[in-house]
Structure formats: C-alpha cells, structure tokens
C-alpha cells in the first residue's frame, strides 16, 4: 500500500482499508515513513493545499482514527506505532488541547490513547479474559509505553478528561482505565492521583500525621480518591455505554484493593447517597446485558476485597443475585458467544480460590450451566482437524467454561464426582487437550488437576479413560506453551501420589528426565511443581526407588536447593528430604549421602530464623528434623551434638503455629527420654526450653497470640493443641522427675 500524500481524503481511504483487515494493517505498518507522518499529524499536520483537503483539525481527527485502528489486531503494526512514539504523541496532543477545541477532536485523541493503552496492556499482561499467546517481540517496548501512561505527568494529561463535557471522551478515559489497570502499582497510581489544584489543597490540609481523606469528609482524596469518586458519579448517567465503562474502570481499581473496596461499601454521607456498591448492584438489573456483566464484575471485586470478604452471611443476597444474572447469561443461546464467555470468566472471578463461594455457586446450579455449555460445543469423539476452522469466539467460550469448572471443582469431592460421573465431562476434557487454542488446552489441564484431587476419581476414572496418561504426554511435550506445561505438571503431581496406579507407569515412561529438565527452567512455577512431583514420588516408596529418584535429582542439587534464596524452593527441598526420611532405611540413606554437619547447620539455621516469611520453610525444616530423630541412636547422638540444636528447637517451640511447635516438642521429648543422648539438664534450661515447656502447659487453654507474629514466651500467650500440651507435659516430667537429666 503506497500513500502518496497525507491529507483528509487519503486518510479516510486508509481508515476504510485497514478496519477489520489485519493484512492491510501489516502492509501499512511496514511503511515507516507513512507511520511517522501519521503520528506527526496528531500535533503538526501538513497545511491543507485546498479546501477539499480538509482543515487541520479534520486531518488530526482522521489521523487519530487510523492510529486507533492500527493499534488493534497486529503486533507488527503496534511495534511500528511504538517505534514512532505514538503514545507520547497522543499525550502531547491531548496536553495541547484548548477549551475552544471541538468535542470531535478531544474524542478522537482520547479514543486513540485508549486504543494504544489497551493494546500495550494486552501484550504486557496479565490477561483479563483468557490466555493470550506469549513471547511477544514487542513486550519490552509495550512495557515502556505502559509505564509512560502511568507516569504522574501523563496522568495529569488524560485523567481530567474523565469528567469532560463530552460523554464520548469520558467513555474513552474510563475504558482506558478498565483495560490498562492490571497491577497493584498501577491501581495505587490511579487511586492516589489528584488534580493539581486539589493536590495543593491536600498538601496544605495535612498536619503531619493526619490523612485528610479520613479526618475531613470534604478532603479531595475522600471516597477512594478523585478518580474513584468521579467514576462512581458516572454510574448515575443514563448513557449505558458510559455506565459500562465506569463500572469496568471501578472494577479494575477495586480488584484486590481492600482500601478502595472498604470505601466503596460505605454510604456517601455528605450527600445522603447510597454506597457505590449499592449503585453497582442496582445496575446488575439494567436492561443492557453489557452493563449487567460490568456491574457483576465490579461488585465481585468490591465484595471479595472488602471488609466482609468470605462472610457469606453479610453478602449472601448480593452474591445470590450476581450468580443468578451470570447463570442466566451463560445459559442463554440468544446471547452472542463473546458475552457468554465474559459471563463465565466473571463467575470465575467470583469463585476462584474460595471453597465457600465455589459451593455457593454450585448449589445455585452454575456447574449445570457450565457443563451444558461444554457439552453443546465440544465433540466427545474428535474428528480430524475439528478445531481448524472453529471461530475464535467459540474457542474462547470453551476456554472460559472449562476454566470456571476447574475452579469450582478444586476443593470439593462431590463436585469433582459430578464433573466425572454425573455430567460425564472427562471425554470432552480429553478432546480439548489437543485443541489448537492455547487457552482451551490450558483450561482442560486445569480441569484434570482439579478432579485428580479426588482419590476415587484418581484411582478409577482418570486411569480408565486414559486422561491421566494424556495429561502426562502434554507435560512431556517440550514445544508446548509454558503455561500449559505448568498446568499439566500440576495435574501430574496428583498422579504421583502413592495410591495412584499410574505412578510406576509414569516413571517407566520418562517422568524423571523430564522433571529434571523442568527443574532447570527459569519459570519459578515450573521449578516449584517439579520439586512437588519429586516430593510426592518419594513419599511411601521403597528404598531402591528412593535411590533411583535421587540418582536423577542428585544429592548435591538437593543441598543447593535447601539453601536457595527463594523460600518456596527451599520449602519444597526440605519437604523432599522429609519424605526421604520417612523410615529408618531412608534416614540411613541421608546420613550416608549428605554431610551431617552441613545438613544440621542448614536445618537449625532455618528453624531459628526470625523472618515471618520463612514460616513454611521452618515447618518443613523442623518436620524433617523430627523424622531424622526416628533413626538409630547413633544418628540421634549426632543430631543432639550440634551446638545450635537446642536453641533452634526452643525457637520452634515458642512459635505461634502449633504445626511448628508439635514436631519441636516431639524432638525435645526424644532427647529427654534418653540419658545417652548427651545434653544435661542445665544445657536444656539454659536454652530456655524448660521455661517454654512450662509456659505451654500453663497457658494451654488460652487463645490469644501476640500481634508480632513470631512470639516470645515472655510476651505472648500461645494457643496450643492437645498434642503439643501432652508432649510438653511428658518432657517436663522427664526433666523434673526422671533419670540423670534431673541433676545439674
């Protein structure tokens, strides 16, 4: 495509050519000179040579329209625009707008900026509506452009347009926020922003410790800040497009944002208006399906992040109404596929990682609706190339339904059995595992992961159907998408439990070499899951199998992993060691293969750590030590001789988690029961163990824990379960009444 000159006529021709035509966009994007000229037209259009060429404003508006169209659908075109600094040019053009400029010009510029913001946010992620392909060549440039959009100077340019007199301009700015705000950092940037005039007022109003938004109902930052307050005001508009855009923008700001959510559930006291949440919920009854969906998502993010999160008694009616709306849209064959997909993903946002909300939605028929969707669009027996000509919208609906089914099945055995038996979805899930659409493959693997948590399904249906072996083959494919591999590996981890008949079969089919390969990957989730798989393989298995597994993993590698700076990796490494030490032959193997001094130094250092983020690592370290104490007396003597042992045990004994105190108390009881192990009573007293044991026994009925987290026995009341108290009392009895340890 050759553009001889840039004028109003040629720009209109270009716009009509590229709309809905990806190949034309790519061709045009390769004309660097034209793209540069197009971007320059936003601020410095060439003067028209005649009246037919249009005014300069007409050219600027048309250039903005072309730029908006080029932003969508082609990464090559987006790359060309970013190289031409289109984002900066849009911002500069908006900053130079004058009060007398037309609404058409403002609307075109704001729409162009919104299109660019949406495009770069989709590349950078995280994705909002299903998985997108990874590995974009423009990711770095897109990330830089996105950071530019959230720079304070940029916010000063486009956020004031949220309250522009033109609804189209307001819609574009709200849509920009809805699409581009995806991280906590960006949410904070938007919610903390104030117009320059209000910034001065807020600065003058502060008296050091005060926060005007709290102490003064007229403060500029009240009701969640300037942006949230004005988005809430836009909900009262009668323009459904404006309502929809404002709802999605509020949803983006309130997601995982407890501060904003807490304010949005409160009534607007200075104006006798209902809370923003009430306004949002009322819009879930709108005549517009698009507004209903936006209202449902907005209400979900406010409720889940708000002060009553997980309290169904407080929010049950709200959630019940939301689920009813979503179920109706999901099941409606009269709605377009994209709308039904969006409803599925919004339901997913409601229930994900919350067992009670999963159960709540299940009881109201959501699983029935989702299963009906999957059955209606998925063949149980896959014909050759069945997905080749499938519309993207249909693949997205299947992905959305399966993703939500996997989330709903994650916690409850009855739901998992319904998926496998009552709804007979396993053959359909199996069909989806080879689908060309990456999101469908990912969602189907997540379904296998969820239902394989059921022992009954794991032992029978997953084996009989061949689904277990198929998800393993997905995991073995080196060319598979990283996220699909991760989901498949999570499912494989469940297949490696000792009660699953597939465990030895998978080891014969090349499991161990693939796990080692994945353990060396850069992706943290894959590395963690690989260690999780090793952990499961080593539990309740024979000594020879342990040796075979460690022949692949290597003891030297396990030693390095136990000292890894990533606490998650460290936790799983200790868990691997803990499972090896589940019996005496395994303990013997550890003492034979590892340097004992190094091992004990690593264990005691973790057990003594004051870092509150180390809690899971401490638990695995002390449980590993507890298992090692079940070895021979010579092994026990080697353990007890370590100079830091008693202090590290006392540290765990004083921990505020009973799960950590329990193995520590058991180790101490093992020490004091045997006079041959070495420490005198004075050593134990000096380490603070006796006073800690007494404290546990004295306060065994208390329930309070100090707010400091990791508590000292002198400053906290420890809540103990019965087993810890019994162990502590037995240890005290031995210390005070039995054997040589009773003498100094």
Automatic annotation (TrEMBL):
This is ARM repeat-containing protein. GO terms for biological process: proteasome-mediated ubiquitin-dependent protein catabolic process. The keyword DNA damage does not apply. InterPro entries: ARM-like, ARM-type_fold, Armadillo, ARMC8/Vid28. It is found in: Cytoplasm; Nucleus. SMART domains: ARM. The lineage of its organism: Eukaryota, Fungi, Dikarya, Basidiomycota, Agaricomycotina. GO terms for cellular component: cytoplasm; GID complex; nucleus. Keywords: Cytoplasm, Nucleus, Repeat. Signal peptide: none annotated.
């Amino acid at each position: 495509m050759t553009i001889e000159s840039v004028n109003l006529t040629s720009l209109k021709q270009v716009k009509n050519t590229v709309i809905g035509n990806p190949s034309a966009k790519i061709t045009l994007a390769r004309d660097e000179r034209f793209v540069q000229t197009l971007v320059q037209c936003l601020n410095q259009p060439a003067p028209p040579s005649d009246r037919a060429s249009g005014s300069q404003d007409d050219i600027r508006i048309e250039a903005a329209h072309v730029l908006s169209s080029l932003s969508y659908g082609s990464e090559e075109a987006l790359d060309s625009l970013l190289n031409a600094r289109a984002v900066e040019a849009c911002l500069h053009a908006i900053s130079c707008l004058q009060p007398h400029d037309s609404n058409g010009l403002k609307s075109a510029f704001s729409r162009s900026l919104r299109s660019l913001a949406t495009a770069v946010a989709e590349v950078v992620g995280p994705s909002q509506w299903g998985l997108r392909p990874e590995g974009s060549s423009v990711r770095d440039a897109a990330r830089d452009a996105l950071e530019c959009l959230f720079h304070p100077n940029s916010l000063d340019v486009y956020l004031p347009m949220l309250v522009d007199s033109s609804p189209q301009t307001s819609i574009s700015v709200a849509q920009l926020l809805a699409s581009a705000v995806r991280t906590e950092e960006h949410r904070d940037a938007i919610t903390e922003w104030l117009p320059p005039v209000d910034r001065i007022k807020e600065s003058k109003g502060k008296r050091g410790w005060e926060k005007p938004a709290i102490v003064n109902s007229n403060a500029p930052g009240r009701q969640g800040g300037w942006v949230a307050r004005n988005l809430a005001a836009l909900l009262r508009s009668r323009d459904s497009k404006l309502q929809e855009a404002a709802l999605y923008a509020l949803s983006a700001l309130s997601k995982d944002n407890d501060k904003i959510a807490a304010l949005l559930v409160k009534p607007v006291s200075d104006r006798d208006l209902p809370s923003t949440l009430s306004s949002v919920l009322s819009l879930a009854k709108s005549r517009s399906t698009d507004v209903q969906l936006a209202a449902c998502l907005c209400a979900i993010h406010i409720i889940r992040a708000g002060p009553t999160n997980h309290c169904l008694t407080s929010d049950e009616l709200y959630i019940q109404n939301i689920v009813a709306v979503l179920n109706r849209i999901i099941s409606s064959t009269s709605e377009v596929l994209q709308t039904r997909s969006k409803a599925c993903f919004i339901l997913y946002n409601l229930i994900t990682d919350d067992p009670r909300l999963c159960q709540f939605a299940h009881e109201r028929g959501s699983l029935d609706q989702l299963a009906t969707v999957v059955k209606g669009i998925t063949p149980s027996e896959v014909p050759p190339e069945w997905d080749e000509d499938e519309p993207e919208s249909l693949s997205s609906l299947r992905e959305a339904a399966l993703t939500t089914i996997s989330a709903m099945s994650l916690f409850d055995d009855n739901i998992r059995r319904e998926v496998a038996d009552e709804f007979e979805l396993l053959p359909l899930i199996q069909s989806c595992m080879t689908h060309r659409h990456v999101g469908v493959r990912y969602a189907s693997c997540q379904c296998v992961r969820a239902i394989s948590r059921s022992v009954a399904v794991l032992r029978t249906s997953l084996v009989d159907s061949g689904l277990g072996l198929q998800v393993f083959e997905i995991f073995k494919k080196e060319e598979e998408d990283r996220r699909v591999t991760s989901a498949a590996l999570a499912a494989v981890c469940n297949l490696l439990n000792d009660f699953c008949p597939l465990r030895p079969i998978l080891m014969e089919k090349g499991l161990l070499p693939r796990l080692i390969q994945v353990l060396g990957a850069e992706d943290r989730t894959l590395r963690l899951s690989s260690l999780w798989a090793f952990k499961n393989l080593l539990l309740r298995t024979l000594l020879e199998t342990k040796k075979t597994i460690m022949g692949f993993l290597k003891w030297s590698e396990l030693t390095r992993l136990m000292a890894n700076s990533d606490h998650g990796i460290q936790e799983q490494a200790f868990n691997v060691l803990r499972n090896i030490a589940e019996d005496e032959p395994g303990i013997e193997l550890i003492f034979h293969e590892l340097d004992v001094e190094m091992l004990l130094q690593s264990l005691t250092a973790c057990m003594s750590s004051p870092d509150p983020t180390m809690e899971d690592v401490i638990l695995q370290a002390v449980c590993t030590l507890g298992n090692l104490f079940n070895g021979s007396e010579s092994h026990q003597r080697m353990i007890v001789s370590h100079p830091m042992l008693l202090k590290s045990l006392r540290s765990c004994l004083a921990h505020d988690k009973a799960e950590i105190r329990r193995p520590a108390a058991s180790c101490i009881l093992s020490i004091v029961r045997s006079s041959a192990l070495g420490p005198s009573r004075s050593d134990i007293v000096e380490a603070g163990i006796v006073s800690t044991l007494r404290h546990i026994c004295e306060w065994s009925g208390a329930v309070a824990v100090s707010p400091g987290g990791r508590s000292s026995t002198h400053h906290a009341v420890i809540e103990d379960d019965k087993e810890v108290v019994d162990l502590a009392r037995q240890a005290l009895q031995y210390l005070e009444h039995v054997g040589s340890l009773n003498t100094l």
